[in-house]
Specification:
Length: 284
């Protein structure tokens, strides 16, 4: 005997129809994101290939690329390690001052970048509180590439913590307890239970921290020293060329930074999608 049809109640959507909502979304993204980026690329295209290559392959420009992207990758990697630990502590442990520390994690979001740069410079300068302790050891942070990495770690930490923290809150501790009861060591529990669960969130936090650090300007220029070929970042070089009315050179550097950033973020997103697919297909 055929089953009677199931009557489903009609739920009126809160927002307008899909076509209208999708159209508004694409129009907004095109106006805010794609249009300015397209203007940069088209402006650089008017230079000519030879002029463009000379502008982006100068030794000073290449040194700024290495410092900007190398420091951003290193800072994002450090934040993945220590940001994951901070998120774990905030989720799994109770201790006095926990709410205060949880609020301090968001301080780099609210603090103006110039204020952060001045504070870090005063702290790590050769006569600063920490810089004075490191100077006898032959370690100089301020006005060196190491200072750039420190500043980028400071501004990128909240991205990792706030990305991993909700995943840890949703992960039930019973899985870890079950693995321990079956004889798994702490390292095995972390490697087989905890790490696969938080890995996509760690990759997302890494991508966000890297994207934020690659274009950082305000907190870096104070502590970097801004020495050409040593501690000069690419965004500062763009500003320098704009001040010299070299708009073509500034646009060319911006296009290369855009291309490198997009490529790295695409690779990270592909890796994140592969990890999620692999973890979903893996048998329990």
């Amino acid at each position: 005997m055929p089953r009677p049809p199931v009557l489903r109640a009609f739920v009126r959507p809160v927002l307008p129809g899909r076509n209208l909502t999708l159209g508004l979304t694409l129009s907004y993204l095109g106006l805010i994101v794609l249009l300015p980026l397209s203007a940069v690329v088209l402006s650089a295209g008017t230079m000519g290939m030879d002029a463009f290559w000379r502008a982006v392959s100068a030794p000073r420009v290449l040194a700024s690329y290495r410092l900007s992207f190398g420091s951003a990758l290193l800072a994002a990697a450090v934040n993945v390690a220590f940001g994951g630990i901070v998120a774990w502590v905030l989720v799994r442990y109770r201790f006095p001052g926990k709410r205060l520390i949880d609020a301090l994690v968001d301080l780099p979001f609210a603090l103006p970048t110039a204020v952060a740069g001045i504070a870090l410079t005063a702290l790590y300068a050769p006569k600063g509180w920490l810089g004075g302790l490191l100077a006898p050891l032959g370690i100089q942070v301020a006005f060196k590439p190491l200072g750039v990495v420190v500043a980028l770690i400071f501004i990128g930490l909240p991205f990792v913590v706030r990305t991993v923290q909700p995943v840890l809150e949703d992960m039930a501790a019973e899985y870890e307890e079950a693995a321990s009861s079956l004889g798994a060591s702490r390292l095995q529990v972390f490697a087989r239970v905890v790490f696969p669960t938080i890995l996509p969130a760690l990759l997302t936090g890494f991508a966000l921290a890297f994207a934020r650090a690659a274009g950082e300007y305000g907190s870096v220029i104070f502590i970097a020293g801004n020495m050409p070929m040593v501690s000069e970042i690419a965004p500062l070089l763009i500003i320098t060329k704009l001040e010299q009315y070299d708009y073509a050179g500034a646009t060319a550097i911006a296009v290369v930074m855009l291309g490198i950033s997009f490529t790295l973020l695409l690779l990270i997103n592909l890796l994140q999608a592969w990890v999620r697919q692999h973890s979903t297909a893996r048998p329990d």
